[in-house]
Each structure stands twice: as structure tokens, then as C-alpha cells.
Amino acid sequence: MAESRLFPENFVWGAAAASYQIEGAAYEDGRGLSVWDMMCRKENAIWNGHTGDVACDHYHRYKEDVQLMQSLGLQGYRLSISWPRVLPEGVGRANEAGLNFYDRLIDELLAAKVTPYVTLFHWDFPYALYARGGWLNPDSPDWFAEYTQVIVDKLSDRVTYWMTLNEPQCFIGLGHRDGIHAPGDKLGWAQVLQAGHHALLAHGKSVQAIRARAKTTPIIGFAPVGVVSIPATESPADIEAARQSMFSVSSKSLWNNTWFSDPVFNKQYPADGLAIFGQDAPQVKSGDMDIIAQPLDFYGCNIYQGTVVKAGVDGKPEVVPFPDGYPQSAFRWWITPECLYWGPRFFWEHHHLPIMITENGISSMDWVAVDGKVHDPGRIDYLQRHLLAFARAGADGVDIRGYFQWSIMDNFEWGEGFKERFGLVYVDYQTQQRITKDSAHWYSEVIRTNGESLR
Ligand code: FCB
Predict the structure, then answer these.
(1) Theoretical Cys-Cys bridge with 34: which of 124, 165, 306, 373, CB 3.0 to 4.6 Å?
(2) Model pTM?
(3) 174 touches ligand 1 (CB under 6 Å)
């Protein structure tokens, strides 16, 4: 009997990037400021004082970049739109030059047979709106809905796949609580959670706006962080403990799956989270949850690593520390390929929505070798292991629809500046030369064989 396929027939093989991380042209063609422009100007906020002013200069080199995607055989490209590039003040006056950039980019992608997957918010929040209170302002959901309309009106004749927010855990938690991402604030929990609530409302209103105005039937999701617990063994008790830990809030932190996803899928904040946050819980007006809980078409998740969990006393989840010398990336993230099995499996069992891996990848110490090429065997090994784990989820009945490697090219890694290289394509930031790494060629073969070359 023939072996069954690793990936379903219509599986989408893609790669991802985000506007501020690659576009550059920060002060050109009428783009307004974003909170990341501001963050990059704060002393000691970004590694070595790097900024996204130029980044990969994708704004000017998008044609070349799309050609690269085409030459690798990418089927999907997850891009994000810079809100202040299209609405310099965040609302009101649209910037035609900015809108036209995305117009041309989408056309270019379609001509190259690369399907665009558009994320509306991957963290470049308009500075003008930050000055009006940012996500703390109760009007912020309407601002986001207005921005959504502008984009949908412009692009939805050609774009079908939409994501609203990327990783609320990060732009709310790291941005408003820890102060290490833009806007760099360190607020009290009550304000942080209120900002998070407004972001959720923004998500809901954005989904409504897309469905109301899209010219082609839209397919909509969002892309939260997938915080994954991996059972220490495959005993039923450890699996149950890992499942419990994936769907609970166990400390005063946003680093979990339920705080942002329960309102979206269950119309309520998780009870354990509400108990932990107590008086700091957000104020929820009547009708808010109906707005937030718009039906979605897929569960997008960004998964890079997992935590190992076992059943401890009374079966309660207990974290198992990594042993000394356990593998890590250049970023010092743990290398735990099973996260791409257990994450998708638990999310599927919990939400019964098709699973898209909207980000997965690794930063490594890449450089141009004497032969002029970039050899990145660590990335190949990482991707191979993770993709096989994802295929196993599919074999076990999880509805797996697509995979977006992070990232198509090295780029501005937020607080780490250009220190971390996540790309399939190497970028020389002095010359803007692109060099396809070994992993890009390898991934291209994975795509060509629909994953069969992973065996
Ligand atoms: C995710 C972000 C993405 C990139 C990767 C490495 O948290 O969504 O922009 O920085 O991490």
C-alpha cells in the first residue's frame, strides 16, 4: 500500500514578514510616524541603537523580493500593512502614495502566483493616535475599524485572506506592561488590561468591517502567540496536564492562550484569569463580547517553542525544566520540535477551527561563507523537525491548512535590532544585497514536493 501523504493536497506553503521589520522608507512618500519610530529613538531601547528607518528597504525593492519568493516557489506570503503609511494621522486623510504601494505589492504577488495573506496590525501603531491615548482610548476600536475599511476597500478585490491582530500578548504585554516593545510603556495592570480589551474590540470591529465590505468572500483569522505546553511523556496524565496548562491562566501575565482567545471564541474572559487579575480586570460594557466574538475561519498561531509539562501532585501541571545544555537558537529560544505537534493538536481539539501556522522559524548566526553562500544547517534541521511534527498532527486528524515560515528574509527584530537573523534569505544591510541561504533552497524543495522531501 502506498504511504499516505504528509500534508493535505491544498496545503499552503508560505513565509511571512511584517511592515516595520522590512519596509524602511520610514520618512518617505507621506508615511506618518509609528510608535516604533518613536521607540527606536529612545535611548538604549533597541540593541545597538538600530532602527527600522531603512531595514530591508523592501519599500523600494519589493519587485526583487517578490521575484525571490517566486523563484523559491512560495505559494503564500504573509505581509502586514503599515497603518501610518496609509493613514498618516491614523484616521481621516488617506495617503494615496502609501495605499498605492500595497496596491502594487499585491499585484506583483498575484502576477508571481504568490497568494497574499494580509495582516492588518503587526504592531506599527500610528504615533498620532498614541498621542491621543493609543489603545487606552475607548475610541481605538473605531479607529482600527476605519483603517480596516480603507484597506478592505482598496485591496479586497484581490485579497481573500485576512488577519486582524498579530500577537496581542506582545504589543499589549511587552509594549504596555514590560516596556520593551513600542510604545515602551510600563503601565499598571488595570490600564494594560483595558488596552487589551480595546484591542479585542478592535479585532471584532475589524472582522465586521471586512465581512461587510469585502468584494470577494473573505477568509479571516488572527495570529496570537501559541503558548505551547508539551507533555513530558505521552501518558494520559501528562497529556491532560499539558492540555490544562495550555488553557489556563496561572499567573499575573498575558503569556497564555486564553486571555485573548476566550473572549474571541467563548464570549468571555477566562474565569481563572479574572480571579487572578481581580480588581484590575477590564471594564466590559454590555454588547462588547458580542462584538469581540465574531466567527473566524481559521485559528492562526505563531509558534516557536514550547514548555515541557508533566502531571505533578494531584495531576496538576508542573513545568519540567530543560536539562543543562539543552539545544537553543541564537536568540536563546529552546528548540522543542514537538511544539508543532501538541500546539496544533490542542488548539484544534479546543476550537475546532482549521489550523494555520502563521509563524515558525529560528534565528541563527548566519554569515556569508568563503564560497559566497550562506550555510544554515541549523535552520534546515529546525524546520525539518518542526514540519514533521506538524505533519504528525495532520496524521492524527488535525485540520492543518498552511505553514508560514518566519521569515522570508532577515529583518529588524524589534528590540534586538538586526542582531537576530530569522530569514530564508540573507540580507546584507550595508548593500541591501540578498543571498538565498541553503535553507531557502531546501524549503523550495519541500514546497515542490508538498512536504514529501521531509521523509
Ligand atoms: C514574533 C513576531 C515577529 C517576529 C518573530 C521572531 O513574535 O510576531 O514579528 O519578531 O516573533
Answers:
(1) 124
(2) 0.98
(3) no
Under 8 Å between Cβ of 376 and 366: yes
Say how many Å lie between the CA of residue 355 and the centre of ligand 1.
18
Contact 184, 123 (CB under 8 A): no
Nearest C-alpha to atom 9 of ligand 1 is from which residue? 18
Binding site membership of 406 for ligand 1 (Cβ less than 6 Å): yes
Pocket test residue of 19, 78, 167 for ligand 1, highest count of atoms within 8 A of CB:
167
Would the CB of 77 count as within 6 Å of ligand 1? Answer: no
For residues 403, 257, 193, 297, the Cα torsion angle rounded to the nearest 10 degrees is 50
b/e burial code for range 366-401 (CB count within 10 A of at least 16 → b): beeeeeeebebebbbbbbbbbbbbbbbbbeeebbbb
Q: Which residues are catalytic?
A: 167, 359
